UniProtKB/TrEMBL annotation:
Name this protein carries in UniProt: Alpha/beta fold hydrolase
Short name of any one Pfam family annotated for the protein: Abhydrolase_1
Range of residues in the leader sequence: 1-19
Chain segments annotated as coiled-coil in the UniProt record: none
Species this chain originates from: Winogradskyella poriferorum
AB hydrolase-1 domain boundaries: 52-289
Residues passing through the membrane, by range: none
Taxonomic lineage of the native organism: Bacteria, Pseudomonadati, Bacteroidota, Flavobacteriia, Flavobacteriales
UniProt GO molecular function: hydrolase activity
Keyword Hydrolase: yes
Alphabetically ordered keywords of this record: Hydrolase, Signal
């Protein structure tokens, strides 16, 4: 019995190592940390010393999205970047519901387990509703917020999103997401204004974390939540008053095919004191305008 368990353990370990042989240590030179949460084992980066900067990604990305910021900012700050359950190097349980509201609970559990305080939270894409919801629940621990292209508020009245939602919830949508790895392989590309910024090497790091159908359920589930969690987004929009008076920096790619400029106007109206900087770029400023956004972040942090 013990021999069988040992063989099983070694097999799983080998599979885990093999599944990460695509990971380039030059691009992502960080030690891996793990914490056991109620929903599964979460991977995170934790490097540097000083005030905490907590990076929260969306879909289909993971902590790799923030790698360049971590390299630079960890010289003066403690940089922590999570991989949501079901993403990146975190555990990918098939029975995890993958809803933003559940991801937000995971993030809150993470913050409290590590007893993080005086946090500068950085959010993007689905990381917006996930991170901001957690920030509202932990408002005394949040110092300030840096926000890339994201949203909050109901989505059920958006006709374009409702059309996409019908496809995502169809047999075709399930096939695209689970069989073809559509989100990181194809949809990700549409988020770039200049496709040259998404090299084959970098692109590989976004789709390789999802090597099989079994590993892709969180991609499908969070896509279903774009409209499916509309009530949750609206609830958190109404609760935003708890954190809206903190310092905010909004960095926005104004050529975003996913989150339109209308959402930026909504943020400006809600957060009139926020510093807003626009860039001629798509959805992924972290890849297309790294140095420019890094400089803005450094100024904001000072």
């Amino acid at each position: 019995m013990e021999k069988k368990l040992l063989i099983m353990f070694l097999s799983l370990t080998s599979l885990s190592l093999y599944s990460q042989d695509w990971l380039d240590d030059n691009l992502y030179p960080f030690d891996s940390n793990y914490v056991q949460l109620e929903q599964g084992k979460m991977h995170y980066v934790d490097t540097g010393k000083g005030d905490v900067i907590l990076f929260v990604h969306g879909t289909p990305t993971w902590s790799f999205l923030y790698r360049n910021y971590i390299k630079k900012l960890s010289e003066n700050y403690r940089c922590i970047a999570i991989d949501h359950i079901g993403f990146g190097l975190s555990e990918k349980p098939e029975d995890f519901d993958g809803k933003p509201e559940t991801h937000s609970k995971n993030l809150t559990e993470f913050i409290q387990k590590l007893d993080l305080d005086s946090i500068t939270m950085v959010v993007h894409d689905f990381g917006g509703p996930i991170g901001l919801s957690s920030a509202i629940s932990n408002d005394s621990r949040i110092k300030q917020i840096i926000m890339f292209n994201t949203w909050l508020g109901e989505t059920n009245s958006n006709e374009e999103l409702k059309k996409a939602d019908k496809i995502i919830n169809s047999t075709l949508g399930r096939f695209l997401y689970l069989r073809l790895n559509y989100s990181p392989k194809s949809l990700l590309k549409k988020g770039f204004q200049d496709k040259k910024n998404l090299t084959k090497q970098i692109h590989r790091h976004y789709y390789k974390p999802f090597p099989s159908k079994a590993s892709r359920y969180s991609l499908l589930n969070i896509a279903k939540s774009l409209v499916g969690s509309s009530d949750f987004y609206e609830l958190k929009w109404n609760e935003l008053a708890q954190i809206e008076n903190k310092p905010w920096l909004i960095l926005w790619g104004n050529q975003d095919d996913f989150i339109s400029i209308d959402y930026l106007e909504k943020w400006k109206n809600r957060l009139p004191h926020a510093k807003v900087v626009e860039f001629e770029a798509g959805h992924f400023l972290q890849e297309e305008k790294f140095m420019e956004t890094l400089n803005e972040i450094k100024l904001f942090l000072k």
